[in-house]
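stage 2 :: seqdesign
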């Protein structure tokens, strides 16, 4: 009987992630629609009878800052968006009779910042770290029938170096369970023994026993003193039953709430399929609770079977195979969507990174959305999971914060939520924390506090602290954690010398700066040569004084094989932190705050996901077995006739020959023994005399041709081209299609200097979720039916609604032939 139930319940549980699920055991509803929102202070807005008729209708996740439009003379460091302030959210909850006798929770995946939650006018709870997930037991504050949920958000005490967003920016779930149930994040699954022919799977399950429910109309409550049978079943990705096991416990007989018990068991999987970056196989653990032969709760967890380890002299091993970490740092905003989390937008970011050869992500510098980890599990991407930037206002730590209590509750939620994900290979308790690195008394005590709590909730992975102060290694803070992680400029050298028994990760590499499509001549003589153009040349030769170009990190890893890998700063441009053109930077150039930029220049791709030239440099090195031949710059230089225009080629070949209008400009080969890193990894013709026409590069490896690329001088733009990333999306109200808009000449060549304003029209039940062009100097609204091309390109993001059908997207611009594309919603 129970084996039949397992198959049925597994199908039902899969629906929990996206829809309302109703059964006798556990009911989960995502609170996506029906919210009211208003900015500002509103006395009595927590009350049930408060009048919110004039408030704005919003969908959760929601970021009020990105909805507000840019403040042109605002703070470029945080994106010039109006994220500071107070806001209120209100929603009517209709609690069904099926909730009678159940324990009811609200689970918030992220609210920026300092939220206070009210149910029916009563305070249900608070939280004090805007990036972390938290949940509240609201059983004694809700009733069957109509209820009022209100959330007050206040970002005024939050501090940030980038755009943090504002509001309920991740999903919210209402969860109803029987009084005896698997606790929130209540399973802890590890694989302590992994052999070729079997794997031991250890599962520790926390059973909550809350006694009689106080929810009104409660009836039929099982006695908390009755024995509970716990059944664990492991299924493969194709839903085949691998193994199952039962055990019995006797929950607490206390009539109070908040009791919990931990039970542990070990199951053995024969001939396990391992989770790996090339074949990320996932198993599902179904945990069922039975009381008096009645199924009272079902809880699912996914996990993977894999082994991880670091070695001092040979880096990182996954499943006993050395893997060089080819990672990127990702901030949590999604470009023109702001910080309002969207699974498809994040999936697309990871797809772009993986297509470049990336195999790892660092969550810089905060708790990520849980869906990021789900995606990395599914896609085979390793995760360097980090909880804090600094131990100050950037982590919502104020002068009145009890540090120990704050650390405990936040580490607990962070680790318990995430610890079953096989993609996570390393925990980080913080980034570049000066008072920890240099303060052997108070700072080291804070470090020990964080590490102790992390180890309390997971001891199956190594832990690190990310450092940036070279000399602080003399104090030996690394004695407290497992892996050397240092940012930039070989700052790891002293730590490695003092403690050679630990592996090294370059946790932030490069920070090379560039603007997609922009090239400035002459080439810079040094990396910090920046001009008043407010853009950075895409020849990839610029970096801040504290950082380096990409090639340096490639070279260091070749010369020092103990380095486990790197995490580039950053995979994508992000809102805020527009070095070197932040407010202070433009003032140093004699300019004003109005000229400071709104978004970063660090990304390998731009803010809307269009690859920069650097994408091909990384791909040529990270994916040596896939053909890459990329020429830069574009070949439209009408004011440079007869003058030198340097040409670079990024390729996985070892040599290339360059042709201009059919005439060879010679063969160039990489110089693997050169002391100049850029001569090792890119091919450069610095004295190409410009003339209109065609550039062609033919790449070779070991004397054999592997590929070629052609770049042509374009004529005037005459037409537009639309390229959607997908032509079919789901009618869920959450799915997206990213549609690239490009200007072409009459022969179909991309016009690299086009800056036309594009008008967008939709027909059908879709929305314009966002627009952008990747220009750090653009202050046009992200939500608009117009967008200006930036160096010939822009991006329009189409959002789905709930009606199936076809949506037509038409774009037009004065003097250009309009074009349309269709996207199907099903």
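stage 2 :: out
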């Amino acid at each position: 009987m129970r084996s039949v139930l397992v198959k049925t319940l597994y199908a039902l549980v899969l629906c929990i992630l996206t829809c309302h699920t109703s059964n006798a055991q556990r009911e989960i509803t995502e609170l996506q629609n029906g919210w009211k929102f208003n900015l500002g202070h509103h006395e009595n807005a927590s009350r049930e009878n408060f009048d919110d008729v004039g408030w704005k209708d919003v969908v959760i996740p929601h970021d009020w800052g990105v909805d507000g439009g840019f403040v042109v003379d605002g703070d470029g460091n945080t994106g010039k968006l109006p994220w500071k302030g107070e806001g209120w959210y209100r929603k009517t909850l209709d609690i069904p009779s099926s909730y009678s006798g159940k324990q009811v929770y609200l689970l918030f995946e992220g609210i920026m910042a300092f939220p206070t939650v009210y149910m029916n006018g009563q305070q249900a709870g608070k939280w004090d770290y805007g990036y972390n997930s938290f949940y509240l037991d609201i059983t004694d504050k809700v009733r069957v029938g109509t209820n009022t949920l209100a959330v007050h958000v206040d970002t005024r005490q939050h501090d940030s170096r980038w755009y943090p967003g504002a509001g309920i920016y991740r999903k919210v779930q209402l969860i109803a369970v029987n009084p005896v149930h698997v606790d929130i994040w209540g399973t802890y699954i590890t694989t302590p023994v992994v052999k070729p022919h079997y794997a031991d799977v250890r599962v520790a399950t926390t059973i909550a026993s809350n006694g009689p429910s106080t929810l009104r109309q409660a009836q039929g409550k099982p006695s908390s003193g009755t024995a509970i049978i716990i059944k664990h079943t492991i299924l493969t990705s194709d839903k085949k039953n691998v193994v199952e096991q039962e055990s019995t416990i006797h929950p607490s007989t206390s009539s109070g709430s908040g009791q919990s018990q931990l039970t542990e068991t070990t199951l053995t999987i024969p001939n396990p399929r391992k989770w790996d970056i090339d074949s990320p196989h996932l198993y599902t653990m179904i945990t069922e609770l039975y009381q008096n032969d009645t199924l009272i709760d079902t809880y699912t967890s996914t996990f993977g079977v894999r082994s991880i380890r670091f070695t001092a002299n040979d880096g990182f091993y996954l499943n006993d195979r050395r893997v060089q970490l080819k990672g990127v740092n990702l901030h949590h905003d999604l470009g023109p969507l702001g910080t309002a989390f969207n699974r498809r937008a994040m999936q697309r970011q990871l797809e772009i990174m993986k297509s470049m050869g990336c195999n790892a992500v660092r969550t810089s510098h905060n708790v990520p959305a849980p869906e990021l980890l789900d995606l990395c599990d599914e896609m085979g991407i390793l995760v360097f999971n980090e909880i804090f930037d600094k131990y100050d206002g950037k982590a919502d730590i104020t002068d009145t914060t009890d540090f120990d209590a704050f650390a405990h509750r936040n580490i607990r939620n962070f680790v318990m939520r995430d610890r079953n994900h096989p993609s996570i290979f390393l925990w980080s308790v913080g980034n570049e924390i000066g008072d920890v690195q240099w303060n052997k008394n108070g700072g080291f005590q804070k470090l020990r506090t964080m590490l102790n709590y992390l180890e309390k909730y997971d001891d199956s992975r190594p832990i690190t602290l990310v450092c940036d102060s070279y000399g602080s290694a003399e104090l030996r803070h690394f004695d407290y954690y497992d892996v050397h992680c240092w940012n930039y400029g070989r700052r790891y050298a002293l730590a490695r010398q003092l403690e050679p028994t630990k592996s090294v990760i370059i946790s932030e590499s490069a920070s090379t700066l560039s603007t997609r499509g922009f090239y400035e001549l002459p080439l810079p003589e040094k990396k910090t040569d920046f001009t008043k153009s407010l853009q950075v040349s895409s020849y990839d030769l610029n970096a801040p004084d504290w950082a380096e170009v990409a090639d340096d990190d490639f070279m260091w890893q070749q010369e020092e094989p103990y380095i486990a890998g790197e995490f580039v700063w950053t995979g994508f441009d992000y809102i805020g932190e527009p070095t070197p053109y932040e407010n202070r930077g433009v003032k140093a150039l004699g300019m004003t705050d109005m000229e400071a930029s709104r978004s970063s220049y660090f990304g390998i791709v731009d803010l809307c996901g269009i690859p920069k030239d650097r994408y091909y440099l990384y791909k040529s090195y990270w994916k040596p077995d896939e053909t890459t031949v990329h020429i830069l710059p574009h070949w439209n230089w009408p004011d440079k006739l007869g003058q030198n225009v340097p040409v670079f080629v990024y390729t996985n070949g070892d040599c290339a020959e360059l042709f201009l209008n059919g005439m060879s400009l010679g063969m160039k080969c990489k110089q693997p023994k050169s002391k100049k890193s850029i001569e090792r990894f890119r091919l450069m013709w610095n004295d190409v005399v410009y003339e209109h026409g065609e550039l062609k590069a033919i790449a070779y490896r070991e004397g054999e041709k592997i590929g070629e690329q052609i770049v042509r001088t374009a004529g005037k733009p005459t037409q537009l081209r639309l390229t959607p990333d997908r032509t079919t999306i789901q009618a869920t109200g959450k799915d997206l299609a990213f549609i690239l808009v490009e200007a072409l000449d009459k022969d179909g060549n991309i016009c690299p200097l086009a800056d036309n304003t594009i008008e967008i029209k939709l027909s059908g039940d879709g929305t314009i979720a966002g627009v952008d062009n990747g220009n750090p100097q653009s202050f046009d609204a992200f939500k608009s039916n117009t967008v200006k091309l930036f160096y010939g390109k822009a991006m329009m993001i189409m959002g789905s609604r709930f009606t199936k059908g076809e949506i037509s997207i038409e774009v037009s611009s004065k003097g250009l032939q309009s074009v349309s594309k269709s996207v199907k919603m099903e």
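stage 3 :: structure notes
- The radius of gyration is 28 Å.
- The chain has a mean pLDDT of 94.
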